[in-house]
Design goal:
alpha/beta, TIM Barrel, eight-stranded parallel beta sheet
Length: 349
């Protein structure tokens, strides 16, 4: 999914300037202090749940992606850095953050995208239930729906590749009720005017299959502008540097305008990813995307911080529009989760 976090000193300083200080942790009963527990030593999950209402905490969702480097999976080789078993992750989120909403990456749910291990998935569900948590969404990395060619044009999957992608995606839809999931987010790949019709058609076929099962299929904002060949390896900044100069309205159409057209055409849903410093260059650009994509929001937005806009201001704006969904924390590592967590809580009414 090529997800990245932009947590710079400038961003942290900006948050401090707007009063996004860490909320105090509640007092712990005797024998239940954080030191030495799941959120204790080693720099992992420092602090504890913020001293705020359960209603506020219910608006936060944490992605398992944030803890990829420390999660232990049954099919992975053990390393000293992998200190948190995947089955302990739901309780960890409760103990350290008081958060009961979990968003999974597909590679944390299954080793093989085509052959889902239902016994493992049922065990994972049992651990979620035992911790009083819920998995609302899986970000399914089962192959992109459109590919950028060397000619600068993007073609949607066709023929056997399209059929294989759809068959694979339907397996994830069929599995979702077992884990309790009601949202799946695909990777649409390169959205251009060349790929738009094909992506819309494939997305519609999957949403039509998922709707009777109560599953929403969403797509997220990706990239910094017009897709370019080979963009995937260098990140948002590299993509921005490689993209040709263009007026901002045109660039933003590639960021979220074509996504909206595909969403409406497919009957699917949106998952706004705020992105880093290259996606939205100002507060107004981010606010325009929030307002534009909100009517078909799947129930969550991916949040982080950036030096080009203020997260707290964006949250207040979304709330002013009547947004009632979750703010999903997407960063690169455990230590950064607390920064975004504090910003969200400080700006919810």
């Amino acid at each position: 999914m090529n997800r990245r976090n932009f947590l710079t000193a400038a961003a942290a300083a900006g948050m401090a300037a707007t009063g996004l200080a860490q909320a105090p942790a509640p007092a712990q009963p005797a024998g239940q202090g954080r030191e030495g527990g799941r959120g204790g030593r080693g720099g992992r999950g420092r602090g504890g749940p913020a001293n705020v209402s359960a209603e506020k905490l219910a608006r936060i969702e944490i992605m398992t992606l944030n803890h990829s480097n420390m999660i232990k999976l049954p099919w992975q080789e053990a390393t000293p850095q992998r200190t948190l078993d995947i089955f302990d992750l739901p309780q960890y989120y409760v103990d350290v953050y008081g958060v009961r909403n979990v968003q999974f990456q597909s590679n944390h749910v299954s080793k093989d995208n085509d052959n889902l291990d239902m016994s493992y998935i049922r065990e994972l569900r049992a651990k979620l239930d035992a911790a009083g948590t819920k998995a609302h969404q899986i970000n399914i990395e089962i192959g992109t729906m459109a590919q950028m060619g060397p000619d600068g044009k993007a073609a949607a999957l066709a023929g056997d590749a399209r059929a294989a992608w759809l068959e694979r995606a339907k397996k994830w839809v069929d599995m979702s009720p077992t884990l309790g999931v009601t949202r799946l987010m695909h990777n649409q790949g390169a959205l251009t005017d060349d790929s738009k019709a094909g992506v819309t058609s494939l997305w519609k076929d999957l949403q039509d299959y998922a709707t009777p099962k109560g599953i929403k299929i969403s797509g997220e904002t990706r990239g910094a502008g017009v897709p370019t060949p080979g963009r995937g390896g260098g990140g948002q900044a590299a993509a921005a540097a490689a993209a040709p100069d263009m007026p901002e309205p045109e660039r933003l159409r590639y960021v979220w305008g074509i996504l909206w057209e595909c969403t409406v055409g497919s009957g699917g849903y949106t998952n706004l990813d705020f992105g880093g410093e290259t996606r939205f260059h100002s507060q107004q650009q981010l606010h325009d995307a929030i307002k534009g994509l909100l009517p078909r929001n799947a129930g969550g937005m991916h949040t982080r911080v950036s030096p080009t806009w203020d997260l707290g201001t964006a949250i207040k704006y979304a709330e002013s529009l009547g947004y009632k969904g979750m703010y999903t924390i997407e960063v690169n590592e455990d230590a950064a989760v607390r920064i975004v967590y504090n910003a969200i809580l400080a700006n919810l009414a």
